[in-house]
Amino acid sequence: MVKILTDSTSDISPLLAKKLGIDIIPLSVNFTSDSYREGVEISPKEFFMKLRSAKKLPTTSQPSPEDFIAHFETAKKSGDELLTILISEKLSGTFQSAMIAKEIVGYDGIYVIDSMNTTTGLRLLVEHAVYLRGKGNTAQTILKNLNSAIPKVRLIAVVDTLEYLYKGGRLSLSKAVAGSLFSIKPIIRIKDGKVDVVGKERGANRAISALVDSVDPKSIDYSVPIYFGYTEKRELCNILMEETEKRILANDIRISEVGAVIGTHAGPNCCVLTYLSN
Known about the structure:
The protein is built from 11 helices and 13 strands. Helix content is 40%, strand content 25%.
């Protein structure tokens, strides 16, 4: 049997994970002396309430190899093949923890996959794997498809400020300063597994329009859903969806509430568009 494991930065809720038939390993968010496992001990709503009152920006931490070993040992004992699809190695040490666990367990039926992405980009790949599994594909066939899809995933977002990405170590000081002048709303993307600033506009509405303008409708693979995401409040995401739907006729649209770990680095009032290019 083919099993699928991902991490909590996919922003797949426990309820949806159960429906999809997958397992999720949580990353953690740390407020001073208190640590919470994402999706288990803290919800997105609870996280942003804490973030607004926090005197110090929280930190995030990856799962330990031991967290993966339990899942890997179960797969080994049952003879299942396990596709483990994780946040970009360039954004988190989660992938490395999984690789250490795989070496300890010593089972060839475990496939650890660097998604080169996170949040809705990671969710897209996980749900694509679930779809392929449902069609009766083998783990090797699904892996081949995922490796082909990974460089084609496009995640673009408008963030309110680059402060959180800079303080969290996901962006350089020079790029953060450039995006913080004159109430500019930065446009970012995930490229080669890392965060990159691709534009900036004065005001959220202009930034959203610029984001949508950057997408060529002919470049989208419409056989895969288009994903939207947001941090804390959905208003900007709704605007992004409305602007996108004026120009792109999507067959399947899915929405994610971005959780605590990515929320730590993106901050409030972020909206995300993700699709698979052809």
